[in-house]
Automatic annotation (TrEMBL):
Entry coiled-coil feature ranges: 102-136
GO cellular component labels: adherens junction
Family: Belongs to the CCDC85 family.
Keywords: Cell junction, Coiled coil
Positions of region (Disordered): 144-171
Pfam families, sorted: CCDC85
Protein's cellular compartments: Cell junction, Adherens junction
Record flagged with keyword Coiled coil: yes
Protein name per its UniProtKB record: Coiled-coil domain-containing protein 85C
InterPro entries: CCDC85
Length: 171
């Protein structure tokens, strides 16, 4: 329906009662339509507001979960960083221990090698002494076999002394 032109008081006096009643009913019908449209718009607006509020609540929940996850990840990062530092400290300690152990092992090895060399020299001396004693025993056995009557050696009997025997066996 087309909008009715606005009437001045002067124009309204000249209209008939039926004309005024018709105009009144047209305006009333228009106002009811506007009120109905306004009600529909408000209902639609309220529905959209409810949808948006529901979305906002959902987003708040999601945001809270993300913040909780973020805090959990931060805590995990702190724990892992602490663990990494402890591992690095332990690795440094093991390196120091390894270097210390290595130096101790080197010094012990050098001491054992030195002792082994001394023992080898002693063994060579013992081998020489054993060889000389064996030669002496063989010499004495030969002497005893050649002269069975002599039970012992007397001074000046012509048998070599131990010192003479050593000199003669080395030549």
């Amino acid at each position: 329906m087309a909008a009715l032109p606005k009437l001045t008081d002067e124009e309204a006096r000249y209209l008939t009662r039926d004309e005024l009643l018709r105009r009144y009913r047209d305006l009333e019908c228009g106002y009811l339509r506007v009120a109905s449209d306004r009600g529909s718009m408000m209902k639609d607006l309220n529905q959209r507001m409810q949808i948006h509020l529901t979305e906002i609540r959902g987003l708040k929940d999601v945001n809270q979960r993300l913040q909780d996850d973020n805090q959990e990840l931060r805590d995990l990062c702190c724990f892992l960083d602490d663990d990494r530092r402890k591992a690095m400290k332990l690795a440094r300690e093991w390196q120091r221990f390894g270097r210390y152990t290595s130096s101790v092992m080197r010094s012990e090895l050098a001491a054992y090698q030195h002792k082994l060399q001394e023992l080898e020299k002693q063994q060579e001396g013992l081998v020489r002494d054993n060889f000389e004693l064996k030669e002496l025993c063989l010499f004495l056995d030969r002497e005893r076999e050649t002269d069975p009557s002599s039970a012992g050696r007397a001074e000046g009997d012509g048998t070599p002394t131990l010192g003479e025997w050593r000199k003669s066996s080395r030549q």
